[in-house]
Amino acid sequence: MKRVDLVKLELKGITKSFGALVANDHIDLVVESGEIHSLLGENGAGKSTLMNVLYGLYQPTAGEILIDDKPVKFSGPSDAMAAGIGMVHQHFMLVPVFTVAENVALGGESTTFGGVLDLEATRKKIRDISARYGFAVDPDALVEDLPVGVQQRVEIIKALVRNARILILDEPTAVLTPQETDELMDIMGQLKASGTSIVFISHKLREVKAVSDRITVIRRGKVVGTADPGASTTELAAMMVGRSVSLTLNKADAQPGEETFKVTNLIVSNDAGQRLVNDVTFSVAQGEILAVAGVQGNGQTELTEAVLGLHKHVQGSITLDGKQLLGLGVRQVLRAGVGFVPEDRQVDGLVESFSIAENLILDLYDKKEFSRGGTLNRAAIAKNAEAKVAEFDVRTQSAQDHVGTLSGGNQQKVVLARELARPLKLFIASQPTRGVDVGSIEFLHKRIVAERDVGTPVIIVSTELDEVLELADRIAVLYAGKLMGIVPGKSSRELLGLMMAGLTADDAAAQLAAAGAPVVRDPSTEEGEPA
Amino acid sequence: MSAATLQESLTTDRLAVRSWRPPIILGVLALFAIVVFGILGPGGNATFRLSQDGDAWQVPNLVVPAQGFGWFAALICAALAVQAYLQTKNVGRPAKWVTMTFTVVFVIGLLVWIIGGTKTQNITVVGLFTGAMLITTPLVFGSLSGVLCERSGVVNIAIEGQLLAGAFTAALVSSMTGNAFAGLFAAALAGVLVSFLLAVFSIKYVVNQIIVGVVLNVLVSGLTGFLFEKIMKTKVNGATIFNQPAHLPDLPIPLLSEIPVLGPTFFRQSILGYLMIVLVIAIWFGLFRTRWGLRVRAVGEHPKAADTVGINVNRTRFLNVLAGGAVAGIGGAYFTLVAVSSFSKDMTGGLGFIALAALIFGRWNPIGAALAALLFGVAGNLQSILSLAGTPIDGQFLAMLPYALTILAVSGFVGKSRAPAADGEPYVKG
Ligand SMILES: Nc1ncnc2c1ncn2[C@@H]1O[C@H](COP(=O)(O)OP(=O)(O)OP(=O)(O)O)[C@@H](O)[C@H]1O
Ligand SMILES: [Mg+2]
Q1: Rounded Cα distance, A19 and B140, in Å
Q2: Residue of A171, A173, A405, A444 to mutate, ligand 1, most atoms within 8 A of C-beta
Q3: Mean pLDDT, to the nearest integer, of B180-192?
Q4: How confident is the model at residue B3 (pLDDT cuts 50, 70, 90)?
Q5: CA dihedral sign, ordered A305, A308, A310, A314
Q6: pLDDT interval class at A531 (50, 70, 90)
Q7: Is residue B428 in contact with ligand 1, taking CB distance under 6 Å?
Q8: Does A21 contact ligand 1 (Cβ within 6 A)?
Q9: Does residue A123 line the site of ligand 1, with CB under 6 A?
Q10: A65 and A59 in contact (C-beta within 8 Å)?
Q11: Across the interface, do A95 and B16 touch by the CB < 8 Å criterion?
């Protein structure tokens, strides 16, 4: 592999408007060669937009890009790639039905005569890069069969194969498990050592502090300053949001009431008969938050799908207020008073081509206040939207804009605003704050606790241990579809870590006791960290 | 945690997801076979004639006792149904070989029963296939046009219009110039013209692709109908000189054309027949083995991903739609330069839509689509042969079968058939 030439990147006065909305307002940014430069900013601050300009996907309204002090003009991504810029998008840009090699080759194919593909050459490049950075990526695997963590490596390989000297990573860790995140950090370190500059975007301040050489903070399209990675998370958060943010949630103890939601001997199988949820029994009381923790892919998704009536092969019993939910359709389950935030908002939660206002009443459209005799009451819908947009601080120009034009975190807020709008008997949220900035996380967490405090049983499914510890009154851990146990919300990270690796609660506690490690968290030693 | 170890630690219980549907369906069909092929089976023999009179090689006729064979097929089917039941009971699902063998035996049994039931009790297999090519050839061209368009993400409902435009233009130009190849060339141009409209409206102006396609079909039908009345029916010195196209000659390939059944079917064709075979292979190779194909498929599956690696999505689509038009236009020329002597109004008779069905049944794969077109052609021709010979079942019913199969294929019963993910979705840059 040839040595990567050092390169300096400079953005000068970049402005990008969408109609009247100025997403980037005279942004200046310098990325020195071989540094990891982080961009921090609230949802909708304009980070992704800026990166899309840099990658040639958007044309800037004003401003210029300089590489090694020479102005360059990108009329499309191929120009940017030719100049040594690679990008891993917030939503992956991989063709699911292609193999890894085909995805890597696409756009820069090696061919023999007559345009005949030479995939062997691509495979070799993939194997070289994999060996160099310790990726375990099979060039012939179908991308749709790969876990997200590996898909992301494929994206990185795509950039490296094109000799990227500047790599843009737009919220790469939002979809990763903690282990995968650690591995990515290692990779970033290696890339930096080999001379690649990295622009890193993340809402997780701890990660930003850990990897950055420099941090630039953007608020509402403008650069508000740079920060030192040594700054505390509270300082960084305050700089981003423009006010002080409390990173720990001071919630009162739960006042659990009657156990109204019961899951008994639940088995969920896939078409091949594998038990993805294997004989799980638990219940949730009114006024408490049960968090379901575990490494992604251990049955959490299937558990929530089973409750919602989205899964085919389900055995056992799921009752809410004594009423059997198993066998009901999704609509009936929602009507029974279940509020649901799905894991992937883009697929299940939102209709991208509908306006924000319409998305906010998707499952309420036949309520009296919004429709009469089959016609929608536009005024009431608009009024509802205004109120929700204000309450949940959705950053948008107008509630009539398409949801698809919102930034990632703001889309998530729309889903939560809708689901928390009606009186609920059960609230289930998967990854409720995925891709949401610290300020909004504070608000959403408070909102979820408020839902608990009016007496709703709440289930939070999250792969973020921080979020689980923050919200949970009790914590259930799933491993390979089995319930490893339910432990109190004050349990230690070590205990949960062992359970997530497949030990039952008792075994894990015994192992910790033998090693003299804590089973319960000591709040005084915990550093306040955002999820 | 790697995915492999997690997979291994899952409990598997096939019986929990057992479905009784396959053994029940096979059971019902086996029962049908016993009653119809066996008990009610026709007496006498069913004869399959494998050679024509003029053939250099004479292959003896295949003669099977209809009822005896019916019993034989029915009992095998019954045994396989029992096997499927046992497998479902014990391991959750029947093995693939069981359902496949069942299908083959059942279809052969059905064929013998039908032929044994006709008055003459024989069928010329060669005639069945050569006749089928009259339907299959335009179907293949039409479905290849569909493959080119839909693989790049543009739904092409206008195949019917492209075929018809090709048929008309070929007839007109060939009549006027007296040169069949000029007609062929003009037909390709006519197809491209229809495609150009489809591309401009659906790609540039982002009009709903289905609607544009339907409108184009109506437009071409109306226009060719009008010109047919105004130009082709005009008599000069008592002859309709604008509707007497010169034809493309048959070009039998020495030796190969003498192979029984296959020879007359595939190696005694006009240049269009050979072009068809070449195109099927070339497009397959192009799509799955070349840079061009990789890009086309990426554009049809995930246009945004293609865009981010510097591929011009809409240009790729535009060019593919134009190429599809040329292919379908040539397919249309087959009607008037090979199959029949002259153009008549709406002579494509909906074959363009059946080409769409072949495209889907063939899973958007050129070879699959060609095989589906062959199946549809044989079924269509079998129906017309049998309705002449007097069958026990209604010819119209037989004619319906391939399309029933297509519906089953589309609904995911006969294996999965998945359209390119971005098929029909316009790409607008963010
Ligand atoms: N294609 C578009 N059309 C109109 N507005 C857009 C478009 N893309 C982005 N915006 C708007 O530009 C602003 C900046 O969005 P951007 O996606 O850059 O935010 P972000 O900083 O990446 O936020 P997040 O952290 O939530 O991903 C938002 O207000 C968004 O609604
Ligand atoms: Mg973003």
Answers
A1: 48
A2: A405
A3: 97
A4: very low
A5: positive
A6: very low
A7: no
A8: yes
A9: no
A10: no
A11: no
* Reported ipTM: 0.86
Nearest to B17 among A109, A278, A313 (CB): A313
Per-residue pLDDT tens digits for B115-136? 888 877 788 888 888 899 999 9
Domains of chain A, by residue range, sit at: 9-241, 245-337+423-531, 352-421
What ligand is nearest to the CA atom of residue A20? 1
Give the three-class secondary structure for A311: coil
Q: Which two tokens stand for residue A231?
A: 């700054």
Does the CB atom of residue A43 touch ligand 1 within 6 A? yes
**Bigger pLDDT: B6 or B157?**
B157
pLDDT of B416 reads 60
Note whether residue B247 is domain-resident. Answer: yes
User: Which one has a higher pLDDT value, A375 or A469?
Assistant: A469
- Helix (H) / strand (E) element for A484: namely strand A482-488
Q: Is the CB of B13 less than 8 angstroms away from the CB of A81?
A: no
Residue B298 in any domain: the answer is yes
Q: How many domains does chain B have?
A: 1
The DSSP H or E segment spanning A470 is helix A465-471
Question: Is 80 exceeded by the pLDDT of residue A436?
Answer: yes
Res A453: pLDDT: 94
Residue of the nearest CA to atom 31 in ligand 1? A406
Residue B142 domain-assigned (yes or no): yes
Share of chain A above pLDDT 90, in %: 56
Structural domain harbouring B328: 126-375
CATH class as words, domain A9-241: alpha beta
Here the CATH number for the domain that contains residue B184 is: 1.10.3470
* A245-337+423-531: CATH topology: Rossmann fold (3.40.50)
Strand partners, A65: A11, A72
* Atom of ligand 1 lying closest to residue A406 CA: 31
pLDDT tens, B31-50? Answer: 999 999 999 888 888 888 88
- Residue B93 forms part of a structural domain: no
Token code pair at residue A422 = 């009606």
Q: How far apart are CA B114 and CA B112, in angstroms?
A: 5
Q: What is the mean pLDDT of residues A172-192?
A: 86
